[in-house]
Amino acid sequence: MKSLFLGQPHRVEKVYPEWIKKTLEIEAGLEGPCITWPCSADDAERLKSADFIFSTWGMPSLSREEIDEFLPNVKAVFYAAGTVQAFARPFLEKGVRVFSAWAANGVPVAEFTLAHILLAGKNAYAAKRMYTRHNRFKEGSELVQRTGGIFRNKVGIIGAGMIGSMVIEKLKDFEIDVYVSDPFLPDEKAKSMGVTKVSLEEIFKTCRVISNHLANNDQTKGILNYSLFSTMLQDAVFINTGRGAQVVEPDLCNILKGRTDITAVLDVTYPEPLPDGHPFFTLPNVILTPHIAGSMGREVERMSQYMLEEYRRYIKGDTARYDVTLDMLKTMA
User: Fold this and answer.
1) Over the chain, what is the mean pLDDT?
2) By percentage, how much of the chain surpasses pLDDT 90?
3) Among 98, 238, 265, 282, which is least packed, fewest CB within 10 Å?
4) Residue 223 contacts by C-beta under 8 Å, 6 or more apart in sequence?
């Protein structure tokens, strides 16, 4: 049995702590330094005898032909990060199993989103603008009175995949009416989750706080546009921790310029980073962060720990928890 790291060495070092690497050496036959791509002739020989690949952000995208040539014996890829859309399909089509730590990476995203939903429910962003930009204390407080706070307010979740479902689960600790737009969510499952399933249009028309968790694919690119943003409620807040390309950003900019009551909380944009002079930098009703919702700092170690545990289940023949399938690629972020 032989395992190798494949990807970008500095990221592998960041995500896989020493104790995980030592454990993989003992239990999975992990050998040598991380292999980069394109690889050297010596590394190509190492890859040909590999049974398992461990990786994280920076995993190269290989074609089916490259997998045949360089990884003829590989049985599984353990990816200590979130989305596998960039590389998984050729492996899956070849019958190689792919495991992803999307659930581990989803934990801090769900926590980050929950924090913003609760702040948005208090209309904290608009109240801050009123107070700090105009020194209008009373009016800032009245903005919260106007929206009613988070209690029994409506929150709309766009996409009930792994992260969207995590957010929904966390919202159960609060008395909030949760609405979900997701064509892949069965009615029975929506009922068991305690949410109301509605159309995307209904989410924007009726929910005070809207959070995007759509899958990242061609079908969702540019799906959030002017026709939706223009229907947002007074003092509504749009949160995006999904992907920037799902938003028609010029449409959102135009709405934000004309509707100073609404707020956009954007942890993702397209492109990243934004070019100098982009309106998002100066619009007062934009909260802009540099894609920090996912695993950072010590949080990244959770992802490699999940993959170590998944490897152990694989070896024992136990049921996998984080197996990726071709069908899942249709709805995964």
Assistant:
1) 95
2) 86
3) 282
4) 200, 214, 246
